[in-house]
Design a protein that fits this description.
By secondary structure, this protein is α/β, with parallel strands linked by helices. It is built from eleven helices and eleven strands.
């Protein structure tokens, strides 16, 4: 009989590509990971991995196992959800992954909202938006708050349950002391210094495309994945930034806010593995998040 835990290790390897990566994720030594995979290989009587440089590649036999492992783990989560519902009461731990502005604007409110459920614990980790679905796939989290930008949908597997949470407008944030840069249009900032997220980030790709459609290549003088750095650079008069309205549910804008032209709202959603979609804990957290979003202050209220 196949060992479920070893199948989980094989599933991790498919996503991470290296034995070291699997070992770090599961708090094993690389040799222990190798031993588990060797034991699984003996169980199925077929080779499961082959070296490719410093990485390893799954064999065709391993790919068959991975497909079944995913379905097996999903069925186990469904069983856990049904059992929790039958026991009555809501208790347990939800591992939540969230990007920075959701962490700042939603997570503290969520924790306060859940104070009426003393047996529910929320463990939260900050993830980059483009790695959220991977964290969900390898069971690093139970629930993901994710984001997508116009025209840049994230790749995800079919066994993920996604619910829209909110539409979050993106707006220009311009230093108050930039008398020499009056806002007329996006093109009027062609010579301004910009702060943006690093190359490859969806927010950066989206904003670069808007600038190019306006006929210029933005002068990106500063790069940082930390949006609080963006705020500070605007506040001190050194750069223009593009930031989501969700930021202003917690902080006061340190500059002049202007509308971004075109399709200028990101989609914020929650996602869970399909097997856990009906778990009472997951349902509670999703319900509270939806309620919190409905009560967030508008930009007009903040300014």
């Amino acid at each position: 009989m196949l060992n479920v835990h070893r199948l989980r290790i094989l599933l991790e390897l498919q996503h991470r590509g290296t034995l070291t990566g699997v070992a770090e994720a599961l708090n094993y030594s690389p040799s222990a990971v190798s031993q588990h995979l060797a034991a699984l290989s003996r169980e199925v009587r077929a080779p499961l991995i082959e070296p490719i440089g410093r990485r390893v590649r799954l064999t065709a036999h391993a790919e068959i196992l991975v497909a079944h492992a995913g379905r097996l783990l999903e069925q186990m989560e469904q069983a856990e959800a049904e059992l929790a519902e039958s026991l009555g009461g809501i208790r347990g731990t939800v591992r939540l992954a969230a990007f920075q502005t959701a962490f700042l604007g939603l997570v503290p409110r969520l924790l306060t909202s859940l104070s009426d459920h003393p047996h529910v614990q929320l463990n939260v980790v900050h993830v980059q938006p483009d790695s959220g679905f991977s964290a969900l796939a390898v069971h690093e989290c139970d629930l993901l708050i994710g984001e997508e930008y116009p025209g840049l949908p994230l790749a995800r597997s079919a066994d993920v349950d996604v619910l829209d949470l909110m539409t979050d407008p993106m707006r220009m944030l311009i230093p108050r002391n930039w008398a020499g840069h009056p806002w007329r249009s996006l093109e009027s900032l062609r010579d301004a210094p910009w702060v943006m997220e690093p190359l490859g980030n969806a927010a950066r790709t989206w904003m670069m495309s808007l600038c190019r459609e306006a006929g210029f290549e933005p002068r990106v003088q500063f790069e940082s994945p930390d949006l609080l750095v963006h705020l500070r650079l605007v506040e001190t008069g050194h750069a223009v930034a593009v930031l989501p309205d969700l930021m202003w549910s917690t902080l006061s804008p340190p500059g002049v806010i202007e509308r971004v032209p075109g399709r200028s709202s990101r989609r914020v959603f929650t996602a869970v593995r399909a097997g856990a979609a009906h778990h009472p804990l997951v349902g509670l957290v999703r319900m509270r998040l939806a309620s919190l979003v409905a009560d967030l202050p508008s930009v007009a209220q903040v300014l």
